[in-house]
Amino acid sequence: MLTPQDAGFLGSTTAKYINDIAPQLDGWFYPLDMMMFGMTEAFHRSLSLSGDIAEIGVWKGKSLALLAMIAPVKDQLYAMDLFGDDLLEQTQHNISRFVAPELASRIRYFKGNTADYSTDYLKTLFTNKLRVLHIDAGHEYHEVLHTLTLAAPFVQDYGIIIMDDYQDREFPGVPAATLDYCYETAQGRWVPFLVGANKMYLANPVYAKLFQLFLCNEAYFKDSFRLSRIKDSLVLIAQSKLPMKSTVIEQLVKNQLHAVATPTELETLTEKARSQSQTALEAEQAQQVP
C-alpha cells in the first residue's frame, strides 16, 4: 500500500485507485504498472500533450477504470474486446461503481474479434489520433503482430503503446511479435524503453528518452531503475533487483548514440555483444560515479 507521503507524486486519484479500488476488481494488473500508467499521464501533462486512449483487450475493466479516472475529461476512451458471455455487462458495472459518471460517459465500447479489424475499420473508429494504446488482446505471435501493425499507425508521435503480458512465460508470442514489429515492421519507429511488472512500454525513440529522464527525475523512483538494452534501444527496468544510480542512468540516456545499421555479419554482432553487454554498462556506470 502506498502511504500518503509516497503517493503524492502520483496524485490522489491514482493513489486511491491503487490502495482502495484495484483490490476490489478482478484481473492481473500489478501495482508497479498502475504507477507507470499514472506516470504516463503525468509525463504527457508535463508536456501539455493530449489525445485519445484505446484499450484493446478489456476483460472486466480493471485497467480501463484507472485510465478513465486519470485521463483529462476531453480525452475519448475506446474499450475494445470480444466481450464474451456477460463480460461487457461486468465491465460496465465495474466502471459505474468506481468511475465518476462524467468520466465514464466518455468510454465507447466495441465488441468484436481483433482478427477481424482492418485499417479502414479503425479509421471509422478513431476520430483523433491516440495518446495511449494498451494492447491486451490475442497473445499468440501473429495475433499480437496483427494488432500492432494495424493499430500503431493511429498513435501520435508522442504516444505510448503498452504491451500486456510481455514477461509472462505462458505467452512467448507477445515479446517475439513486439520486437519483430518494432525493429522489422516499424523499422525503429517504435522502440521498447520501459519494463514494468508485466508490461513493456513502447515509444518513439525521442519521446522514449524524454520519458526515461522524466522517470529518473521523480524522487520516489530514485536509484531504483536498472538500464538494459534491446538491440540499440536503452530500456529502463522499473524496481530492478540490481538498481543503478539515477544520475548515472540520466547521463547514459543523454549520451545515447543513434541506432546503427542492423549488423549482418557475425563479427559485427560479436563486437556489439561485447561493447553493449551488461558488463560494459556496469563499467560505464563505474566511470560515471563521482
UniProtKB/TrEMBL annotation:
Biased-composition ranges for Polar residues?
275-290
Family annotation (InterPro entries)? SAM-dependent_MTases_sf
Question: Which SUPFAM superfamilies does the entry link to?
Answer: S-adenosyl-L-methionine-dependent methyltransferases
Q: Which Gene3D superfamilies does the entry mention?
A: Vaccinia Virus protein VP39 (3.40.50.150)
Q: Where is this region: Disordered?
A: 271-290
Q: Which Pfam families match?
A: Methyltransf_24
Q: What protein am I looking at?
A: Class I SAM-dependent methyltransferase
